[in-house]
Automatic annotation (TrEMBL):
GO terms for molecular function: DNA binding. Transmembrane segments: none annotated. CDD domains: HTH_XRE. PROSITE patterns: HTH_CROC1. Residues 9-64 form the HTH cro/C1-type domain. This is XRE family transcriptional regulator. It comes from the Bacteria. Pfam families: HTH_26 (PF13443).
Amino acid sequence: MGGRIVLRLDRMMAERGRSLNWLADRVGITNVNLSKIKNNRVSAIRFSTLAAICDALDCVPGDILDYEDDDGDAEDAG
């Protein structure tokens, strides 16, 4: 039992044609920290950061958050 939340920020950035540098500048965080978020190397994300990312990419949290169950099956979180 138990799954995990997976960030699909890379997918949304590609869909929007936006670079890591561009997004980091808009969100106001370092490239290193944004890269960690993009590559799912974080265990938590502040709601304010998530909101800033969504504002910059013109999306909603459900567009970049997925839930993976223990079998590795992804379900849309939105």
